[in-house]
Structures are given as C-alpha cells and as structure tokens.
Amino acid sequence: MSSTLPSALEQPWQRAWSDAERRIPQLQADIAATPTPLARITRVGKVDAELLDAELVQLLKEPLTKALNLANSTLKAKLEPELTLLIHLVLYKFSVWDHGASYGAKLQGLKYMSSRTGTDMHGGSWLPRSTLALHSVLTILVPYIHNRVRAHALSNAWPEAPSSDRRRKAWELLTRLESIHGLAALLNFVVFLWNGRYRTIADRLLCLRLVAARRNFQREVSYEFMNRQMVWHAFTEFLLFLLPLINTRALRRQILSLTSRLTFASILPASIRPYIGSPETVHSGTQRRGKYWTLPEDQCAICAENASTNFADPANALTSLTEVAPYPTAATDEPTDSGDPDQAPRFPIQTPYITSCGHIYCYYCLTERMMRTADDRSGTGPKGTQWECLRCAEGVIAADRVEAQAEGPDYLSGVDDEDGDDSMSRMSFEFGSEDAYTEFTDMSGSMGSYTDNGSDISSE
User: Fold this and answer.
1) pLDDT digits (tens, 9 = 90+) for 214-255
2) Contact between 438 and 399 (Cβ < 8 Å)
3) Res 414: pLDDT
4) What's the rounded Cα separation, in Å, for the pair 221 and 227?
5) Regarding predicted confidence, which is higher, 121 or 54?
C-alpha cells in the first residue's frame, strides 16, 4: 500500500514536466526571433546634447583666445577660426570617431546609429571610414570654410562692388546659399519635432540618428543645479529687500567706535592694569579729552576734522593734511597755543554756537553733525542720538547761540580804548540753558550781543 501511493502522486507531475519540456525550445525560438524594442528618446535630450557640445567648445576656446590675446592681439582675430576648427577636430576624434557619440550625447545617454545598416558606430569599426569622414566634413569643415569665405568677402567689400563685378556675383551666390541652408535647416527641424529622428541636415543625409546607449534607458534629470540657483536667487532677493532697511553708515560707525575703544589695557583685568602702566590708570583722574582738545578755542574743531579727512579732491589732499598737522591730537599731553595773535585762525568759527558741554563750534558744522548723528543713531547717550564732542568726548544734548555783551568805547565813533587789545582776550560768554534737548535758535532774529569786560560798547 505504501509503495503504490508515491507512484500515484508522481504521475501528474511527470506528465506536466513532459508537456512543458516539449514547449521550451519553441518558446526560446520565439523570444530570439522577437526584435528588441528601442527605448523612446525624447527630442529635448537630443537638442540638449547639441547644446552641451557647443558649450564645451566655448569652454575650451575661451582660455586659448585669452592666451593669444595676451601674446599678440592681432593673432586672436587672425587665428580664432583655426583655433575653433582645431578644437572641433580634436573633440570629434576622441568622441564620435572613437566611441560613436559626442560628449554631449554621452551625458544624455545617447549614441549614433545608422538607419541604413542598422549597426552602431562603436569604435568606428561597424561603419565605413568614409561615412565618418563625410560626417566630419559636413559638421566641421563646411562651417569653417563658410566663415572664412564670408570674413574674406566682408573685409574686401564684396557687397559694395558693382553689380557686374564677379565679387558682387559671388557674394550674391553666397547669400543665396545661406538662405537655402537656413530654409532647409528650418524644415529639417520641423520634421525633427514631428518624428524625432534626424536632428541636423548632416544626420539626415547620412541617415545617422541618436538612440539610447543602454537597453534600459531612463533619462535622469538632476535638479541639484536648479535647486542651488533657486536658493541663491531667493537669498539675493532677501538681501535686496533687507539692505535698504539697514543703516550701513551707522553700523559702520558703531563698529569703528568699538574697535577704537578696544585696547590691550581694556582687555586685561583691573588689578593688572596699574603694573603695566596703562594709559587709563595714568589719566584716571584727569578730564576726558576728545580728538581735538588741543585745538585753540577760537577755532572750530569740526572744520579741522573736515579738512583733515577731505580727500575727495586729490589736488587738496596734501594741503588738508598739512593744515591740521601742527595741532596734536588727544594722544598728546600738552595743549598748543594759537601762535601769533595777529595771525588769522586757520579754522575760524562762523556764527558761533555753544554746546551743552561748553565748547563753541560753527552753527552749520554743529547742526550738521548733531542732525546726522540723531538720524544715524551713531553717537553716544541713549539710543546713540547724542553727538560726541571733539574736545571733551562728551555727548552733546543741546546747543545755544553764543550771546556776548561788549562794554567799552563805541567802535562806530572811531574812539579806541587804551585796553582794547586786552579786552578781546578777556572776553566772557554767557552760556545758554543746558537742560533742554537739542534746540537751535532762529537766525533771522537778533544777532546776539557780545560782552567785553574792558569795553563799554554793546552791539545789538
């Protein structure tokens, strides 16, 4: 009983295998006879291959033309067509002639195939060399000859020759051939868009078309470059939106102010500064000094600073430096005298205004600095709206017109006072209010009054 059961189970399996074994050779023959389907190639891939080839030629030609231009500028104009011809021939030899596909076609996963023989151009051994030679002549040599003939015709004024001249007839023939070639190229491109077979006229004449280099072809499109371009474009748009909102001038002044105050002594701890002879410890008990604290009181420090930094005119640059050179800056310890009292000051104060810290400047200079500092917020004090005085380095919160009363003989009457020369040196000023914020009096009103201790004349 046990011997009969396995034999009964094996009989259907053996019958199925016998039936399938007889059909296997027929199935193999049918598969071998079935032609391999060609992968569908998009038209844009073929056009991209041609564009990539043109870009490669330009990338190789640009450094060579620059080198020729550096060697001799005339060689660039004379040898540029020959240089382009050489680059085309070298690229054709190492791409189409050897591997059956240009570099642009390889990047797109394409290769050439002849529709006449149905064979590929692998290594140039499956097609006659004559076909490859004709293809190179039509795609490389003919455009070079056309460019040379056209350049020669234009340099010798063939279009301006008389109508009966052979040069004029040759030019007309050349223009007709160009028109015919342009029309044929347009018709070929329209047909290519219709069926996607032959991309150029040379490919159509030689029956060469681009096919997939692999059986399982899949056009791979990398969006990495596009993503980088989109990110960079968005970043530039954001910068164009943000930069006008940033006060770059105030930011630059704040950075310069911080860097100027940052010294080696300020980084060290306070306990170590006295041992290294820090300037802060030496002058800790002295009054704060500005950049132009040594400038005489009868001169405007803002005018001196403007003169020292006015390099817009190259002719007056050295003059601006020499004008301020005699006056030391805050690095010195001793103030300088005004020199000869009979000599006119180099930077006289025009329409004097006194600041809240007690120093006098020109009205125009002071108002310009205070308003610019308030707008840029690049000064000292709360929110950086106070301008820093150039003499004492304190924040200026207000400025008033200098009011002085002169006492002495009437200058209009021509009477001189005996102490007239000494009276001007003992001039005293009545300062305005320092509690108010930046206020500027109207210049259309009273011109003010000057007070002279040694005189009896007042001017209204």
Assistant:
1) 766 666 666 777 788 899 999 999 988 888 888 776 677 677
2) yes
3) 46
4) 12
5) 54
Q: Which of 334, 346, 362 is nearest to 307 (CA)?
A: 346
* Residues 389-423: tens digit of each pLDDT: 888 888 888 888 887 665 555 544 444 444 444 44
Q: Is the pTM of this model over 0.70?
A: no
Q: Which of 251, 242, 280 is nearest to 384 (CA)?
A: 251
3-state secondary structure at position 212: strand
Nearest to 336 by CA among 295, 303, 391: 295
Record the tokens describing residue 220, joined without a space. 């791979």
CB atoms within 10 A of CB 380: 16
Question: Cα(5)–Cα(114) distance, rounded to whole angstroms?
Answer: 64
The 10 Å CB-count burial string (b at 16+, else e) for 134-146 is ebbebbbeeeeee
DSSP element (H, E) containing 396: strand 395-396
Hey, what amino acid is at 98?
D
The secondary structure element, H or E, covering residue 54 is helix 43-71
CA distance 66 to 64: 5
User: CA-to-CA distance for 444 and 351, rounded, in angstroms?
Assistant: 12
List helix spans (H) across 137-271. Answer: 142-155, 166-195, 201-206, 224-242, 248-261, 264-267
